[in-house]
Amino acid sequence: MPTLRFADPATRSRLGDLYTRALTALADRHTIHADPTVYDRAGLLAHPPGTFVRAGGGYPSPQRWTRDAAVNAWNGASLLAPAVGRNTLWSVVDRGPHGLVVQQDDQWWDQVVWIPAALHHYRVTGDRDFLGRAFETSFNTLAARRARDFDAAYGLFRGPGFMNDGISGYPGPPAAPGVRSSFVLDHPGTEALMCLSTNCLYHGAQLALASMAESLGEPQRAASLRSDAARLRAAVDRRLWREEAGTYAYFVRADGHVDTSQEGAGLALAVLCGVADRTRAGLILDTAHWQPHGIVNVWPHFPRFDDRRPGRHNVMVWPMVHGLYGNAAADAGRTDLFARSVERLAALVTGSGGNFYELYDSVSGAVDGGWQEGGSGQPEHFVSQPDQAWSVTAYLRMVHEGLFGLAFAEDRLRLRPCLPPQWGAVSLQGLRYRGMTLDVAVSGGGSRVRSCTIDGRAAEPVLPGDATGHHTVDVVLGG
Fold first, then answer.
1. Are 426 and 6 in contact (CB under 8 A)?
2. Is 50 in contact with 91 (CB distance < 8 Å)?
3. Is the pTM here over 0.85, yes or no?
4. Which residues contact 243 (CB under 8 A, 6 or more apart)?
5. Which of 2, 176, 331, 360 has the most beta carbons within 10 angstroms of its beta carbon?
6. In the structure, what pLDDT confidence band is assigned to residue 479 with cuts at 50, 70 and 90?
7. Is the peptide bond before 116 cis (omega within 30 degrees of 0)?
């Protein structure tokens, strides 16, 4: 495992020690045996290692959940433990009548997050065998979703929000009083919602599948997919962009009603999945509402919730969502917002004894599961589960792809660091990337590269994917 070192002792204690804790949690606590009868329905798991990354310590088994598997591979497992990351992705894939496909469960809107995660795995590892099977899986999955869930009248895909499988993440309607269930689809009309986060992921999935097609020598198919993505992006802008507010709305209902709440994951994914251009990315980052302890799932409170009883999927800080926002800030070169994202997540985890919990109260910072309608039909107080894997990998991704700016491509690794100047110089030593071991040092501050040396020679901050051996990279930032 790599080692993170800050030159400043206070920053090292505040942020560096937590990185070590996150690495340990991912390797020792969340990487577990994958029962082949449950997790190897596609027949593609590798033994060894015979392991995958679970969702969390507070959940019952099995944990064969597409969203968790894809996010944890994308956020960190594919880089830190490629064989485990690959197994984690294959653990939620089935063999259907037309070939490999992401499991077709009742949370269909989660399926497409697998596709950009799979492209990321290929770009990190260069694994061509994986690429071919990932393309088949992604193509079949996207085709199934387009046939069933694309609304041609709106030009958008139907489905609840990426993070909001609980009804507390929605106003009423579609939340229906008296329904004795927390699951979003048990409330009428939720299946027809067209949400920002979900459509941003579809856009990212279409672009990811196009990139896979190009790598496999299918330029015409790639061009068709890019055209689909462009039309979807235009539909998101037409239906959900709020020019007067400089941000995106949360969702549009089938009757045309637009909910203007702020969806944290939606804003982050608009940047990370290429829906927002540079100007709009700057606007949504500038206008986003922060609670005292971070970016929340949805802002503001829906009328049935408040600061005393916040909704579980409403005004609560989920580290995974908050981390996505931090990476979006880094991607846009906003060192101020990136620093705030990292510092506040670190403070939450440190304040909970170093355990990466599922979610936190946005006002007090306390571990809390929030309120949500349950089996009684009335709001019930839920538990925030301990040992949440995607809370761990959210922090790791902010270090790797935010702070050090690791940007993976098919044939190269580019560094685009985002270093808040108050943190001082920092290094990441012993990072394995394909056939290399890298020691990366970043100094200065900001997100503009002033100079770079590789093995002592002036160079662009780029490493070819086919290089081997040990290499040192020193990047100086300014502005």
1. yes
2. no
3. yes
4. none
5. 360
6. low
7. no
